[in-house]
Amino acid sequence: MTRALIFDCDGVLADTERDGHLPAFNDTFAHFNLPVHWSEEDYAEKVRIGGGKERLASLLTSDFIASANLPTDEAAQIELVKRWHRFKTDRYTAKVRAGEMPGRPGIARIVATAHDAGWLLAVASTSAEESVRAVLEHAVGAESASWFRVYAGDVVPAKKPAPDIYLLALRDLGVDAADAVVVEDSQNGLRAAAAAGITTVVTVSSYTADEDFTEAALVVDSLGDQPQTPARFLSNPRGVEETGQVTLDTLTALTTR
């Protein structure tokens, strides 16, 4: 039996939103002289929108367009958002490569053990592919990152909470939903994976701890690395053994209960 372990990127591989994406968005606004600066509270709402370009496009209300003297033509606005997003991606990627966002506990451990056990590995994210690959390499190392298939950005037209990116990953990997596990950190991501029929583990992150994860097979504060940073099991509806870290045995038990 071929199994697959599929990770979201932001908030899962590293807790990137507060220290990476938010300042990169604000750097972009300053660079383009846009009359906006997102606070942490503002961004807590924006993270509910899947995709960086989509978050930027949410600025384009009639009042904002007028105050920023932006074009009213839709095609011109689309090109403008693309320009903003390219700049933002460059700023964000530079922060990742500077080591400002370490991998979350347990990520490198479970990737290595899954690879050794013959599991397929993938990342499925709404973020730009360049950003995802930068986070992945920093979180697990360049050699381990080469084991992954990456599905990111605009590879599908409908982003999370639509299941499209996970359905694409299953088809491309050649794996049934019953033989895959997803690791997510947000309700949108969980909804996407659940709609694709995939067992999902949620590792809550700084912006998602209070979201509704009722559909998750397991909710933890991280995958855990014993003994330094053990995982806290926050919701365990399937009653798997709580060992202080999420292991391949944990994931296998979740898919067979």
Task: Report the β-strand fraction as a percent range.
Answer: 5-15%
**What Rg is obtained from the alpha carbons, in whole angstroms?**
18 Å
Number of strands: 7
- Uncertain segments are none
Distance between the termini: 17 Å
- Major beta-sheet overview: 7 strands, mixed
Main-sheet strand order equals 3-2-1-4-5-6-7
Number of H- or I-type helical stretches: 11
The level of helicity is 40-55%
Query: Which descriptor suits the 3D outline?
Result: elongated
Order of helix and strand elements from N to C terminus = EHHHHHHEHHEHEHEEEH
What would you call the structural class? alpha/beta
> Taking all residues together, what is the mean pLDDT?
94
Question: How would you characterize the overall build of this protein?
Answer:
There is one protein chain. Strands 3-2-1-4-5-6-7 form a 7-stranded mixed sheet, with helices on both faces. The chain is an alpha/beta fold. Helix 1 crosses helix 5 and helix 5 runs parallel beside helix 7. It has 11 helices and 7 strands. Helix 10 links the parallel strand 4 and strand 5.
Secondary-structure blueprint:
Layout: E1 4-7, H1 16-31, H2 40-46, H3 52-57, H4 62-67, H5 74-97, H6 107-116, E2 120-125, H7 129-140, H8 142-145, E3 148-152, H9 164-173, E4 180-184, H10 187-195, E5 199-203, E6 218-220, E7 233-235, H11 248-255
Parallel strand pairs: 1-2, 1-4, 2-3, 4-5, 5-6
Antiparallel strand pairs: 6-7
Helix pairs in contact: 1-5, 5-7
